[in-house]
Design brief:
Structural class: alpha+beta
Strand content: 5-15%
Largest sheet: 2 strands, antiparallel
Radius of gyration: 14 Å
Helix content: 25-40%
Number of strands: 2
Shape: globular
Distance between the termini: 14 Å
Strand order of the largest sheet: 1-2
Number of helices: 2
């Protein structure tokens, strides 16, 4: 699973995903709703990057870390 950095789109990891896939890895890239430039859904909804509008206070960054993706490890 490839998860882009804060406010980045999954497309920024395309080259890495292709390289991993060429070596036989199954690759999944995710976008994080409200954390990238825009997220479109199959029903036509589009969300904007809300994260860019918040003040960058220490509490803001604590929420980002707390709500961010967790590390996944295969068993």
């Amino acid at each position: 699973m490839l998860s882009p950095g804060f406010t980045k789109q999954r497309g920024t990891l395309t080259a890495l995903a292709e390289e991993l896939a060429s070596h036989g890895y199954a690759v999944v890239a995710v976008d994080h709703t409200y954390e990238n430039v825009g997220q479109s859904f199959p029903d036509g909804r589009v969300t904007a990057c809300v994260a860019r509008t918040y003040p960058r206070s220490p509490e803001f960054w604590r929420k980002v870390v707390r709500g961010g993706p967790r590390t996944f490890r295969s068993c």
